[in-house]
Design brief:
- The protein contains 14 helices and two strands; from the N terminus they run ααααββαααααααααα.
- It has 336 residues and is mainly α.
- The chain folds into two domains: 87 residues, no CATH class; 234 residues, MetI-like fold, CATH 1.10.3720.
- It is globular, with a radius of gyration of 24 Å.
């Protein structure tokens, strides 16, 4: 396990370097003059020239990339030139916890509902429960997130907030960046309930696709396990159906489910762009969209790098969970 973890940690910088290279190339491939985007389209030519020199845009691309990579190694993601030259890392530090909070809430809903539907569908294969569960899963994959978000707003706008992270009348103390945790640390139940109410609809909209995927994978994996010899033996011993499913079948069917969870968490971070836009959620999604509109090259690059880093760490944690779910697995070792 230690050697496997060491190899994965060594591979992490390679992945981040590749992402940084792709991001840099894409930023430099965008049509238009980056100096004009910083100084303004109507700025005089001498001001554009000064900005081009100060920012190093007049240097060869290879030199620009080396300088960009050097800043990244020092934790410098650049500056937001349209927001008083504020550090991009400071902006992301405020936005990322909100997106992670939304993603974790959506994943919690997806796991709870998806596992339940998948287990019921496998346990009652061929029944109306099976068909109903898979119909829900099919609908979850088919319905666009932005359209579902609009439907939720129309249906529940009278009982739940439809935009923002928190009512503007509340000012939470920023300790962790996660609103639910911060309001709990403050001991303010009213503010906590308001933050939770703002989280419900965007989390439900974001959870639909991973919920459907988890339900389908759970059903397929459970059906394979339920046909095993040891399950038939457990039934012959007179064990209860619930005990067989929860204590024996589910654990052995968990590996593909855990793999899917790691991948779906990454998709939640990417899919948050649409959800956050529909519900005006102040997170990485709206931050990236605003940066694209304002041609904030360094903001876009910093956001993509941070999300890529988060995705890689989540997948590393997912791989390490395998050995705890199935003790037979030994990463980096082969059985004799």
């Amino acid at each position: 396990m230690t050697s496997y973890l060491f190899r994965r940690l060594l591979f992490l910088p390679v992945v981040l370097w590749a992402v940084s290279l792709i991001v840099f190339v894409l930023m430099r491939s965008v049509p238009g003059d980056p100096a004009a985007a910083i100084a303004g389209e109507k700025a005089p030519a001498e001001i554009r020239l000064r900005v081009r020199r100060e920012r190093g845009f007049d240097r060869p691309i290879a030199v620009q990339y080396v300088a960009y990579l050097g800043r990244l190694l020092h934790g410098d993601l650049g500056e937001s030139f349209k927001h008083s030259n504020e550090k991009v890392r400071d902006q992301i530090a405020r936005k990322l916890p909100h997106t992670l909070e939304l993603a974790f809430a959506a994943l919690t809903i997806a796991v709870a509902a998806g596992l339940s539907l998948g287990i019921l569908s496998a346990a009652f294969k061929g029944s109306w429960i099976d068909y109903a569960s898979m119909t829900v899963a099919l609908a979850g994959v088919s319905i666009p997130v932005f359209w579902l978000g609009l439907l939720l707003i129309i249906a529940f706008s009278s009982v739940l907030p439809v935009s923002g992270n928190l009512n503007p009348i509340y000012v939470p103390v920023d300790r962790t960046g996660f609103l639910l945790i911060d309001t709990l640390l403050m001991g303010d139940g009213v503010m906590f309930r308001d933050a939770l109410a703002h989280l419900v609809m965007p989390a439900l909209a974001l959870a639909t696709i991973p919920l459907a995927m988890i339900a389908r994978i759970t059903r397929a994996s459970m059906l394979e396990v339920l046909g095993s010899d040891y399950i038939r033996t457990a039934r012959a011993k007179g064990l209860s159906p619930a005990g067989i499913i929860l204590r024996h079948a589910l654990r052995n069917a968990a590996l593909p489910i855990v793999t899917l969870l790691g991948l779906e968490f990454g998709s939640l971070l990417g899919g948050a762009v649409l959800t956050e836009t529909v519900f005006d959620w102040d997170g990485m999604g709206t931050y990236i969209l605003t940066s694209v509109r304002e041609t904030e090259y360094e903001s876009i690059g910093g956001a993509v790098l941070v999300l890529a880093f988060t995705f890689v760490l989540v997948n590393l944690a997912t791989d390490l969970l395998y050995s705890f779910i199935d003790p037979r697995i030994r990463h980096g070792q082969q059985e004799a």
